[in-house]
């Protein structure tokens, strides 16, 4: 994944169809890889699939698939992605909020981003959750 981001090389062919097929798999490792590649290649047509994985309440809050979806949203763009990420950063279980707040690109949402991080930190009961936000955000 790092090579895909650094080199900005993309294979030929229909990447959307290939990754969309992987996103529908039950294998979480495949779904995470597909989300990371969709993000690296900025395949905006997969934003709704990423939103679906992020909203998937059947996965645990800290499941790598759900976290990968939250991390992919800023790169896939769109107001609905922004709104979803800010929604998850403001409500829900602590692990899900931390994943949303620490997602790459969340900070570019300006004052909304800062408010969600500050609100979480002011009510954080676990030192580990607060430490992760402080380490990644400031």
SSE layout and pairing:
Blueprint: H1 2-7, H2 15-23, H3 28-40, H4 47-55, H5 64-76, H6 79-90, H7 94-101, H8 111-123, H9 127-137
Which regions have little confidence, pLDDT < 50, spanning 5+ residues? Answer: none
Indicate the multimeric state. single chain
According to DSSP, the number of beta strands is 0
Task: Name the helix and strand elements from N-terminus to C-terminus, one letter apiece.
Answer: HHHHHHHHH
How would you portray this structure in words?
The protein is built from 9 helices and no strands. It has helices spanning 2-7, 15-23, 28-40, 47-55, 64-76, 79-90, 94-101, 111-123, 127-137. It has one domain. It is mainly alpha-helical and 138 residues long.
Précis, in short:
α7 runs parallel beside α9. The two termini are 25 Å apart.
């Amino acid at each position: 994944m790092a090579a895909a981001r650094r080199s900005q090389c993309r294979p030929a062919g229909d990447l959307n169809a290939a990754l969309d097929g992987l996103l529908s798999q039950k294998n979480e490792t495949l779904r995470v890889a597909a989300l990371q590649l969709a993000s690296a290649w900025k395949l905006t047509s997969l934003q709704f699939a990423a939103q679906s994985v992020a909203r998937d309440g059947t996965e645990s809050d800290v499941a790598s698939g759900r976290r990968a979806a939250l991390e992919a949203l800023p790169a896939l763009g769109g107001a609905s992605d922004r709104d979803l990420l800010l929604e998850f950063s403001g409500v829900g279980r602590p692990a899900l909020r931390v994943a949303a707040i620490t997602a790459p690109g969340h900070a570019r949402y300006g004052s909304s981003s800062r408010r969600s991080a500050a609100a979480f930190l002011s009510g954080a009961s676990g030192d580990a959750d607060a430490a992760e936000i402080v380490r990644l955000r400031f």
